[in-house]
Amino acid sequence: MIVIVRRRRARCAALAGGCCALVALAGVGAASAGAAAPAPSVPTPLATSLQSGAGTWATLPMGLLGQPLNTFWQLFFRPAGAATWSDRVGATATATNGGLVLASAVGQPLLAAVRPSNLLRFSPLIATTDGHAWEDGLVPGGLDATPGALATAPGGRSLALVGGGAGARVLASAGDISRWTTLGTARGLAAAPAGRACGPSSLTAVALLAGLSSATEVPMVGAACSRPGVVGIFTIGAQTWRADAPVVPAALRRGRVTALSLRATEDGLTALLGVENGTSTVVVAAWTSGDGTKWTESPALVLSRGAHLDSFGPTDGTGSFVLSTDRGGVTSLATIDGPADGWGHLPPPPRQTATVAFDSTPAAATVALAPQGTTLTVWSLAPGGRDWTEAQILHVALTFNSST
Amino acid sequence: MPGMSTGLKTNNPTIVSALHTALLHQGLVVLLILAVAGITLNALRTLQFRGYARDAERPPALAQPSGPPEPAARRLLRISFGLLWLLDGILQGQSSMPLGLVPQAIQPTAGASPTWVQQLVHDGTTIWSYHPVQAAAAAVWIQVGIGIWLLAVPRGRWSRLGGAASVGWGLVVWVFGESFGGVLAPGLTWLFGAPGAAVFYCAAGALLALPSRSWATPRLGRGILRALGLFFVGMAVLQAWPGRGFWGGVTRTGGTGTLTGMVQQMSQTPQPHLLSSWVASFETFDAAHGWGVNLGAVLALAVIGAALLTARPRPVRIGVVAAVILCAADWVLVEDFGFFGGTGTDPNSMIPLALVCVAGYLALTRPSRAVADAAVPIRVPTVAPTWRQRLVTNPGYAFRFLAAMAAIGIVLVGAVPMAVAAGSPNADPILATAVDGAPNTLHDAAPAFTLVDQHDRVVSLAGLRGKTIALTFLDPVCTSDCPIIAQEFRQADALLGAAAKGVELVAIDANPRYTAPDYLVAFDAEENLSDVPNWLYLTGSTAQLQKIWDSYGILVGYASGGAMISHSDTAYVINRTGGLRDVLDADPGSGSAATRSSFAVTLADTIEGAMAGSSGS
Questions:
Q1: In a domain, A169, yes or no
Q2: Does A136 contact B at CB distance below 8 Å?
Q3: Measuring CA to CA, which residue among B326, B323, B328, B295 is closest to residue B309?
Q4: Is A378 helix (H, G, I), strand (E, B) or coil?
Q5: Which residues of chain A have pLDDT under 50?
Q6: Contacts of residue A93 in chain B, CB cutoff 8 Å?
Q7: Domain boundaries, chain B
Q8: Whether the predicted interface score ipTM is above 0.85
Q9: What's A96's domain CATH number?
Q10: Into which CATH architecture does domain B439-616 fall?
Q11: 3-class state of residue A283 by DSSP
Q12: CA of A157: how far to CAs of A105, A174, A178, A209, B484, in Å?
């Protein structure tokens, strides 16, 4: 009897063991499927607009936006004083699936860099002063996916962010847009005392701040900091980094801060900061008119819970706009003019609006650019107006499957 | 698993035709093997007859008994799995197997498995992707060979060896074809075929490989049934486990439940309407009564498992009948017979599982006493005959021996060409032919050009006289085809080995905007071409380039809406005397590792042909 009982126990143990093994196998599979991702920093959408001497430029995606290789970024241009827009993306002469990054400065041509996509690893770069004739250059690396990855200054110097993530590099050009040298690296910043306080997870923006004490501009680099409450804005020179950042309001010091954009103006530098505080995204504008040591911060622009940034960029001078869409698909457009102002809200732009464009002329209308498939609808909002009116429809001939 | 799909349609006529040709040629060899085996058998029988006629009384030492009858359980396994292997071999001959098996049947299972499984499967199936025709044909003959082996050789050492062969090939199929039956992927369930049909082929093969004495007592049957009982109980626990999507026909968010989704997918497989309507009806039923269906499955699996675990004839009989019914229902309503759709390689797991269950029952209830008796060594005073003596004196042994030899020969008909092909790191050139067609021969003088290279040095066609030239046209800011073509040129250069010293790889800029050497340098750096000594990337003014594009028939044009420059993907081979010898359509298609390698082999072969032709002239 004892022997029989033992045998039965052994069978039960074998049965239980077998079942446990099977369940463990299934559990392994289930566990691997549910791994949690780290909390993201504030995204930096590429759709934006800016003004150059020749007119207003805007870049946005069109086509089948769910398919990266059938998403084609366009370059729309409205000459100064004109009312209608036209597409100038043909000047890039390459596939724009990865996006376009624009930069301009007073008296300087517009720079448009093509972000790498598919098998392309570097960024063709073109420049124009009038929107018709183009000069060619290249950035010897893949330009980062942030609208602040390219900057130029009145003197002709330019900066570019390439590589992305921990391998990001800051490249500098003295004027020839095909010749670049490395000014600094993300690893260098992370190792520097100034960078350690920030814990940069990525470099996000560059700008050339007109120097007060010297004739040459000061290169500035923005970063997304992994340490809460720390703003990552640095000046870089000869492989040395110095933190020159504003302080975020006390209520936001638990959030991770991303320098969304840095923009040199005639008066100094305008920065847009995105703060992810876990439940919502907050945008703060900051200005410095000096050497980067004294800053003025705007009130916080709190996006509704679950809302995402669609676009941000300059309005005019020191002003900025922020376009966002909430969970319900309602688009909001907020603007701020300068250090002395607060955020104001324009009437909600039409659905599908990818970016908006402003004009330095006081009486000029604000424009919303709303693409859908191969059609771009241009909406116009008169100064002080309440309703957006359809101003223009453009049909863009996209060559689907040409990048596959 | 990027790089595995060739991007070709599975019914590509070039590949299908090549498969049919390979099967026809190899089929003739198989017929020859069978004919030789038949003639040899006939000759041996003649010898045996003459021997009988010469010796009125046979010597006692050579008197061979016909042997004990084969146990019923073993016979069931041998014949049924022999037929299954034959069916599987025939299914492997379907037209879509060479190009469809990996992306449509193997990748989906492997894709859900852990990374190391994906890598292992990727490494194993690279051979298939690189040599799809040889691999598909090999799978046909290996499985047909094993099937014939099992069917034709009922007992003895050669029969057991057939079982071992079944285990070996079954393991290959289980690991590389079924990604370990998906047991390491999430969503493991008996209903979908876990732990993979090949496991049961292996189990059956292992049983067939056992010595005859193993079948003499009910012990083997008990072991089989208890193992199956444990398996069924484990599967019941897994099926009952909450949170795996089986307890509802639809999810809370309105999506389909796991089983409903699977059945829905199966119902969309190309198959006769009657069958798809059955599956679709079950899908509807499960969507409405998902909880009840799962409860039924859990209870059925648990009860069957418990019955088999008893290893007693009466409950086992009930359990086996229930298992066969459940397997048949699952086979029809969930697995959808398993072999439709063009890339079905076997009837899935339910049939082999049911067969092993029945075999276990037979082994328990009908052990072969005759085998047991025969297993007792009989002391014969004379010397045992050698295999040669048995061959000429024992007709049964001669048949088994020759049948096994013929089966091994059939397996080798598939395996040997595959092994030879697998020894090469390069893909079969037929893939490039399938993508772009075969190279065309030309007999014109190559249009002259003088341009600058990536280092600003002037280069002319006349200056390259004496070298064989592989010429193409590449856009330095191209995002898809041009980098792939450049890599194919680089691989072709490596394939040429020492002969590459006499070859120049030349690309001419095919973008009218980006004509500065800076772009060529950036492209070379991107594609690791900077250190290839015989690589020249040429450019010039747009007018110069346009003239050369025209002279070589290259169409270059701006495309609208943010698309890259469109241009012809063409490669020329120019011989040492400046004559255009071959033109290749260089469109790289999907640019998978297999097609890249295949195009490189084609280009290298064409260059070598041009070099040989030049030296001949």
A1: yes
A2: yes
A3: B323
A4: strand
A5: 1-39
A6: 477, 511-514, 558, 564-565
A7: 13-61+68-380+387-422, 439-616
A8: yes
A9: 2.130.10.10
A10: 3-Layer(aba) Sandwich (3.40)
A11: strand
A12: 10, 5, 12, 11, 35
C-alpha distances in Å from residue B419, one per residue of B99, B411, B416 = 19, 12, 5
- Whether A139 contacts A162, CB under 8 Å: yes
8 Å CB contact between B470 and B571: yes
How confident is the model over A281-311, as pLDDT tens digits?
999 999 998 766 789 999 999 998 889 999 9
Query: Is beta strand B468-474 parallel, antiparallel or unpaired with respect to B503-509?
Result: parallel
Q: Is A267 on the interface with B (CB under 8 A)?
A: no
Q: Is residue A16 in a domain? A: no
Interatomic CA distance for residues A318 and A267, integer angstroms? 8
What is the distance between the alpha carbons of residues A390 and A375, in angstroms, rounded to a whole number? 13
User: Of A126-140, B185-199, B420-434, which range is least confident?
Assistant: B185-199
Element (H or E) spanning A344, and its range? strand A344-346
Residue A17 lies in a domain: no
A373 occurs within a structural domain: yes
| Token couple for B116 | 């190391």
What sign for the dihedral angle of Cα B109, B110, B111, B114?
positive
| Confidence at residue B248, expressed as pLDDT on a 0 to 100 scale | 76
Question: Which of A26, A92, A126 lies nearest to residue B562, judging by beta carbons?
Answer: A92
Given a contact cutoff of 8 angstroms between Cβ atoms, the answer to whether A315 and A275 are in contact is no
Provide the token pair at B301.
């699996």
Chain A and chain B share a number of CB contacts under 8 A equal to: 142
Q: Taking the model in full, what pTM does it have?
A: 0.84
- Domain boundaries, position A317: 48-395
Which ranges constitute the DSSP H helices of B173-289? 197-208, 219-240, 258-267, 273-288
The 10s digit of each residue's pLDDT in B303-313 is 999 999 999 99
Query: What pLDDT is stored for residue B191 in this prediction?
Result: 87
Q: Do A403 and B563 touch (CB under 8 A)?
A: yes
- Count of residues for chain B? 617
Residues in chain A: 404
Residue A321 β-bridge partners: A313, A335
3-state secondary structure of B233: helix
Task: Provide the residue type at B617 as one letter.
Answer: S
Only one residue has tokens 């056992």, namely B210
Which residue type occupies B216?
A: A
How many domains is chain A partitioned into structurally?
1
Q: Tell me whether residue B6 is exposed, middle or buried, using C-beta atoms within 10 angstroms of its C-beta: 0 to 12, 13 to 18, 19 or more.
A: buried
